[in-house]
Design goal:
5-stranded antiparallel beta sheet, 10 helices, alpha+beta, Alpha-Beta Plaits, Beta-Lactamase
């Protein structure tokens, strides 16, 4: 067996797919027969660089072709990951490792390389990214009630504050506290207390129904609604809707000081932030209104300073 036949046998016995393209004609002078098993396209159908480009997934085609041409023109060896189309309409992730063959005068003579099937690796990477995304979502979600948590509120509040200051649109906050919740827990137990928190959270979340609205649990029995582009009248109306929705749940509370059902108290405020305004000061102001509502008898809304 000649040396060339030995080399060909070695190349064609690997899982990697060898190939060569002449730079002047952009024609394949060789591609390994493994290409047919991997992609389904006949070995003889790989005639030119256009056949290679046409068999790249349309979402990857332009950037891959432009990158490879640019690198090759500069005589730079390179690698490219892309989705190659199979003959039956599916795709396989390919890593193309390209070596630029140059003449003595530095001009490009040919491109040679290997195609590797990296589908399993890509699927594993995508699974990891998916899991990372799910963990990130969970890190912003209150595990008990399913609404956003304090971390999410602390992240979005300054963003919405800055947007309101720039746009001149009103920003509203509603801070909510479940009335006599300690007495509820003491009487019914923490399992029932957790169920109560979930029911209240569902009511509040359904009231803040726009995609830009945020319902978050600040901690314990305290919640907040972050309402971008919401004026004072609308915020007050939404707070009243929250109070009614919680009432409609008819959650029994034998130790409440304001009736026999679970109720909520709320502080409400609206601002068009100016350069001198501070988001933490505004939040403190709404907290004070909440405690004014509680001091005034609970099961009510306070939207003005005492």
């Amino acid at each position: 067996m000649t040396d060339s036949n030995v080399y060909r046998t070695l190349l064609e016995s690997t899982r990697a797919i060898p190939w060569r393209i002449e730079w002047a004609t952009m024609q394949f002078t060789y591609i390994g027969p493994q290409i047919e098993e991997l992609l389904g396209w006949k070995q003889a159908s790989w005639l030119s660089a256009n056949d290679w480009a046409d068999r790249i997934h349309e979402e990857d085609r332009q950037k891959t072709v432009e990158f490879c041409i640019s690198q090759s023109q500069q005589g730079v060896d390179h690698e490219a990951d892309y989705r190659a189309l199979t003959s039956d309409g599916d795709y396989v992730w390919i890593r193309d490792v390209v070596h630029v063959v140059r003449r003595d005068d530095g001009t490009v003579e040919a491109l040679v390389g290997f195609m590797f099937d990296i589908t399993e690796r890509k699927q594993a990477e995508e699974k990891i990214l998916q899991l990372q995304h799910e963990l990130e979502v969970l890190s912003y979600r209150d595990s008990l009630t399913g609404v956003a948590n304090r971390r999410m509120f602390d992240t979005l509040y300054p963003v919405e504050w800055a947007k309101a200051r720039t746009s001149g649109h009103p920003l509203s906050l509603v801070v909510i506290d479940i009335d006599y919740f300690k007495q509820y827990n003491d009487h019914y137990g923490h399992v029932q207390g957790d169920a109560c928190l979930r029911l209240v959270a569902q009511s509040l979340d359904s009231a803040a129904s726009r995609s830009q609205d945020l319902c978050a649990r600040l901690g314990g029995e305290e919640f907040v609604l972050l309402l971008p582009s919401t004026d004072a009248a609308t915020a007050r109306s939404l707070a009243e809707r929250c109070r009614k929705l919680v009432g409609q749940k008819e959650i029994a509370h034998a130790r409440s000081g304001v009736g026999r059902l679970v109720t909520i108290s709320m502080g409400v405020g609206t601002i068009i932030p100016g350069d001198q305004d501070d988001p933490s000061v505004f939040l403190d102001r709404i907290d004070r209104r909440l405690y004014q509502a509680k001091s005034a008898g609970r099961d009510r809304i306070c939207d003005v300073e005492a």
